[in-house]
Hints:
- By secondary structure, this protein is α+β, with helices and mostly antiparallel strands.
- It is built from 17 helices and 5 strands.
- The protein has 3 domains: 140 residues, Globin-like, CATH 1.10.490; 146 residues, Alpha-Beta Plaits; 79 residues, Arc Repressor Mutant, subunit A (Orthogonal Bundle).
- About 1% of the residues have low confidence.
Amino acid sequence: MHRQLSANARDLARRVVDELVGQLPAYGALPSEELRNETMRVAYQSIHGFAEVLRTGELPGRERLAVIREAAAHRAEEGLMLDSVISAYHLGAQVVIDTLAPSVRPQDVQDVLALNRVLMQYLQRVTAAGVGGYFQERQAAFGVEHFAQQALLEALLAGSPAREAADRAGIALPARFLVLSLAVGAHPDERTPGVDPVIAGRRKLRRLRMELERHVSGVVLSALSVDGGLALLPVPGEPTGEGAAGLPGDVPEAMAEWVDGVLGHMMRVSGATITAGIVIAAPDGVRNGARLADDVRKVAQAVGRPPGPYRLTDVVLEYQLTRPGPALAQLSSLLAPLAGKPDLLATLRAYLSSGMDRRGAAERLSVHPNTLDYRLRRITALTGLDATRPADLARVQAAMAAYDAPDSL
Length: 409
C-alpha cells in the first residue's frame, strides 16, 4: 500500500485538488496559481507523509506537521472558514481510500482494519495541527484588528480626523453612526451565592456582543463592560435629514423601532436589562454625539423610565429640566423634605413612572393601594405638592427630574 501511494502521489494530489475545487466552494474560489502550487504541494506532502506512516509505522512528528500548520495559517489569513479547511483533510483521505480499495482482497480484512486505524490516527494529528495553525493565525489577526478598531474608536471619540485610523483598520467610514450609550443590569447569576460573579458577568457580556453584532451589517465599534458602555453602529446610505422631532442627532422613528427590537433580543439572550441613549452622528460629530447619548440615557434612568432605547425627543422635557442652573437647584429643593425617606421617594417615582396608576404603582412596590395612598398623603404634607392633583402634577414631575438628575449633568 505504501509503495502504491508513493508511486502515484503526484497524480493523487491532482485528484485531491480537483475534489477540493468541485466539492468545497471556498477552494473553488482560490486563484488557480495557488491551487497549482501551494495546495498541490500540501496535498502531495500529506499523501507522501501517510505513505511513510504505512511504511515505518511511525506517525508524523513536528517537522512534517509544520507544513500542515503553515498551510492552515495561510487559509486563515485568506479568510477561509475553518470547516472548509478541515473538510479538505477528509476529502484527501477519501481519495486515498478510494485509490487503495480496488486492490483489497477478501483475506485482507485484518489489514484493512489496521489501515483504517492508522488513517484515523494520521487524520487526528493532521487535523489537530491544522486547527492549531489556523487559530494561531486568527488570534494574531484578531489582535491586530482589535487594536486597529479601538484606535479608530478612540479617534472618533476624541474628535480627531479618523480617516487614517479607518484605513489602518480596513474599515470604510460610514456617512453616519448610530451611537448607543448602554447601561446593562446584572444577570441573576451575578448575585447568586456560590456563583463566581466575574464569570457570570463575562458570559453576559459575550452574549451581548454576539447578539449586537448578529443584527448589524458592518463592523461594530464598541467599548463595553459588564455594566454597559458605548457602541457605534454604521448606518448604511446617505443622511436623509433630521429625525421626526428635528432635534440634533435625533434618530428616525423606523430606526428607533429597529433598535428597540435589537435591544429586546439582547436582553432575552443575556438575561439582563438594558437602557440606552441613542443618537445619530456623522464621523466628525461622534464625540458630541456620544456625550448626548450618554446624557439622554442618564436622564431616562433618573426619571424612572423602563429599560429600552431613548432618543432625545423621548425625554426632551426631562432633559431640559435637568440642565445645570439656578432653576435646577430650586426645582430639586422642592423635594428636599423627602431626603432620608427612601420609601417616600420610591413611592413617588413609582407613581409617576406608572402614569399615575395607583394600582400599578402599588404592585410595582409590592404594597397595598391603601399604603400607597398613605405615602402620597405624607409626601403632600412634607412638600406641599400633591401628585394626585392635575394642577400640581407638572411641578412634581419637574421636581422629581431635577432631584434625580445625575451630578454630572
